[in-house]
């Protein structure tokens, strides 16, 4: 197993400690790289794959903690283990929260360290297997993965098929968990670029100062810590596709550079003068209200128009009708198979609960709910007891929903009243008489309120004659 593993990186500025760690790991059959500063560690990671890092917390220069932060931002899946001589329980908790895989206080028993390293090695092998499996089944980003029979979802698949083979820039706007990443992946997989790289950058996860160099690369010495020249991700994506996720979070200065890049594919590395050019198709996504961001001057309108050549708007799950159950069954099959259980479906009551829920977290939330239910359920069907308490969640949500910013109580009440009135009118086919009856007010009062709330022009509903008037109402 270890033969397939990339090396492990050790960072310690104390020579003896570094050598004894190295020896211990080599004895166990690991390949080792070691350096004596966090800066060198980061530089090495730029061009070499390692399966984990063991670093001392106190280093001359950049500390192990700052190193951990930087690794989390750049290589979120790389495990980092921190060793320190100055341990306190609180510090331990903070370090784990900051994303370290483990934390060892000096002096520690060698087995403790070996144990932690073995876990990371195992995890690495698993990740590799998973990736190979997915690539093999070829299922990662195919159209079939986008489940749903609602009209909007069918249209969406159709649009993906139409747009994928073109080079059009695509903007995907949708609430969190609606499948934006899935769409972006399918667009690449079905394009003529599918054999070239698909590079995804999450603009919200990378610190603003690093995003530009991540995207466009940097020259050696461009800034402190830029020890080597680094190619940009756009170069990696040359001939393929780059997916800029959470683009609504990109800073304005970088938006300007992206705009220039979009014009003709040219860019310069940070600290460089040479103008470089690549052929990259760009897909961008955000769950932010982009029009609002433009209004607040946080997003450049010209960039929006440049990105918005083709727009995808995956709808929220609550608007997809029966797709909730379709997706629920799909995920249930997946999870019960993976867990070796034979859960056949949902009880009637459980299905009703799923359909009634509002799904603020959309498909991702549904997937998590079904995973949890599959774990908890011991019978042949998912029972309501294995689902979360949606009512409680809905009540919690409602409490925050009724308090939107910048609206007075009068405005909020008027909105609420308007919603009730229009729903009642719709339910009664815009008959004033029946609506007034249902709401237990007079027709006069109904008309008055409608006028006050600006509901429906007169033509939008027909006046009903009363039975006593004897006029023909079949018109
Ligand atoms: N139509 C669908 N069919 C099957 N799975 C879906 C569908 N839509 C979303 N999913 C699944 O739901 C999860 C969330 O989807 P995805 O990550 O694409 O959402 P997103 O819109 O990018 O969310 P965010 O804005 O939070 O990043 C993923 O596990 C994805 O596979
Ligand atoms: Mg996403």
Can you characterise this structure?
With about 475 residues, the chain is of the alpha/beta class. It folds into 4 domains: about 1-135, 3-Layer(aba) Sandwich (Rossmann fold), CATH 3.40.50; about 145-310, Rossmann fold (3-Layer(aba) Sandwich); about 320-400, Helicase, Ruva Protein, domain 3 (Orthogonal Bundle), CATH 1.10.8.60; about 410-470, Arc Repressor Mutant, subunit A (Orthogonal Bundle), CATH 1.10.10. The chain has 19 helices and 16 strands. The strands form 5 sheets. Strands 2-1-3-4-5 form a 5-stranded parallel sheet, with helices on both faces. Helix 4 links the parallel strand 4 and strand 5 (about 100-105). Helix 18 packs across helix 19. The protein is globular. The model is unreliable at about 135-140 and about 465-475 (pLDDT under 50). Bound molecules: adenosine-5'-triphosphate (ATP) and magnesium ion.
């Amino acid at each position: 197993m270890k033969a397939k593993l990339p090396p492990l990186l050790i960072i310690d500025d104390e020579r003896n400690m570094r050598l004894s760690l190295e020896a211990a790991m080599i004895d166990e059959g690991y390949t080792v790289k070691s350096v004596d500063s966090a800066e060198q560690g980061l530089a090495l990671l730029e061009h070499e794959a390692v399966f984990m890092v063991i670093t001392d917390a106190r280093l001359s220069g950049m500390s192990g903690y700052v190193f951990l932060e930087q690794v989390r931002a750049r290589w979120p899946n790389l495990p980092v283990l921190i060793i320190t001589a100055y341990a306190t329980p609180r510090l331990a908790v903070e370090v784990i929260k900051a994303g370290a895989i483990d934390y060892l206080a000096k002096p520690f028993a060698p087995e403790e360290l070996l144990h932690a390293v073995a876990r990371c090695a195992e995890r690495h092998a698993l990740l590799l297997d998973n990736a190979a499996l997915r690539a093999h089944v070829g299922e990662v980003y195919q159209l079939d993965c986008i489940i749903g029979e609602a009209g909007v979802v069918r249209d969406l698949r159709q649009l993906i098929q139409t747009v994928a083979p073109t080079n059009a820039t695509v903007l995907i706007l949708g609430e969190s968990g609606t499948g934006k990443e899935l769409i972006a992946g399918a667009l690449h997989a079905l394009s003529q670029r599918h054999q070239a790289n698909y590079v995804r950058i999450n603009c919200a996860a990378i610190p603003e100062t690093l995003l530009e160099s991540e995207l466009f690369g940097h020259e050696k010495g461009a800034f402190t810590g830029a020890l080597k020249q680094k190619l940009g991700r756009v170069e990696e994506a040359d001939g393929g596709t780059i997916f800029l996720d959470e683009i609504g979070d990109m800073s304005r200065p970088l938006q300007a550079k992206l705009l220039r890049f979009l014009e003709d594919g040219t860019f310069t590395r940070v600290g460089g003068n040479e103008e470089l050019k690549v052929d990259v198709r760009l897909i961008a996504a955000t769950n932010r209200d982009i029009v609002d961001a433009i209004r607040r001057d946080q997003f450049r309108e010209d960039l929006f128009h440049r990105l918005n050549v083709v727009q995808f708007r995956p709808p929220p799950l609550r608007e997809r009708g029966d797709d909730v159950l379709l997706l629920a069954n799909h995920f249930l099959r997946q999870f019960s198979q993976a867990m070796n259980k034979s859960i056949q479906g949902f009880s009637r009551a459980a299905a009703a609960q799923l359909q009634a829920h509002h799904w603020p977290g959309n498909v991702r939330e549904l997937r998590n709910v079904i995973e949890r239910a599959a774990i908890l359920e011991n019978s042949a069907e998912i029972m309501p007891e294995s689902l979360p308490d949606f009512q409680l969640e809905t009540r919690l949500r409602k409490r925050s929903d009724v308090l939107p910013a910048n609206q007075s109580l009068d405005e909020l009440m008027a909105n609420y009243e308007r919603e009730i009135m229009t729903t009642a009118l719709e339910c009664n086919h815009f008959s004033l008489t029946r609506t007034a009856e249902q709401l237990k007010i007079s027709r006069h009062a109904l008309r008055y309120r409608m006028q006050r709330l600006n509901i429906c022009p007169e033509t939008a509903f027909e006046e009903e004659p009363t039975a006593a008037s004897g006029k023909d109402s079949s018109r």
